[in-house]
Design goal:
Keywords: Membrane, Transmembrane, Transmembrane helix. With 151 residues, this protein is mostly helical. The protein contains 7 helices and no strands. The model has no long low-confidence stretch (mean pLDDT 91).
Length: 151
């Protein structure tokens, strides 16, 4: 079975965004209580201890804004994995997903979505969303060519 580039890159992006949260975000987030309830507290503590020194030299946007952009990026690539051929369903879900990602940040600005509005969040999403669409289309074209050649 051939690996789908969009799937691999999409999953990696989502996992990488999640790891940023695990390593550098506040432990008051709900996910930490889930980790601790299944016995992962020592493992998470070890990871966070190892990563702490990196947070001292990393810009804040990496751990506050990059995860959302990575999740949007990865999610879109996964839609390209589900609908490998260009179709209205893929376009619908990519647009809905993109509007929800950006719209939730705008909702934070006007106070209808909980959280803290950040222009860096929107800026990164407005870079990563078109990038994911471009990569998704390119990877699809590469796969079509390799399939046609029997690779």
């Amino acid at each position: 079975m051939k690996k789908n580039r969009n799937t691999v890159i999409g999953i990696f992006s989502i996992v990488f965004g999640g790891m940023i949260y695990v390593l550098w975000r506040k432990q008051s987030l709900l996910m930490f209580s889930w980790f601790y309830s299944i016995g992962l507290k020592p493992f998470v503590a070890l990871l966070r201890e190892f990563a702490h020194s990196y947070s001292l030299v990393m810009p804040e946007w990496v751990y506050f804004s990059l995860p959302n952009a990575l999740w949007a990026f990865g999610g879109i690539l996964l839609f390209y994995s589900i609908w490998k051929d260009a179709c209205s369903e893929r376009m619908f879900w990519v647009l809905l997903f993109s509007m929800t990602a950006v719209g939730s940040e705008i909702g934070q600005l006007v106070g209808i979505v909980p959280g803290t509005y950040d222009t860096t969040d929107i800026s990164l999403m407005l870079i990563f969303i078109p990038l994911a669409i471009t990569i998704g289309n390119k990877n699809h074209a590469i796969k079509e060519v390799s399939d046609a050649k029997g690779l």
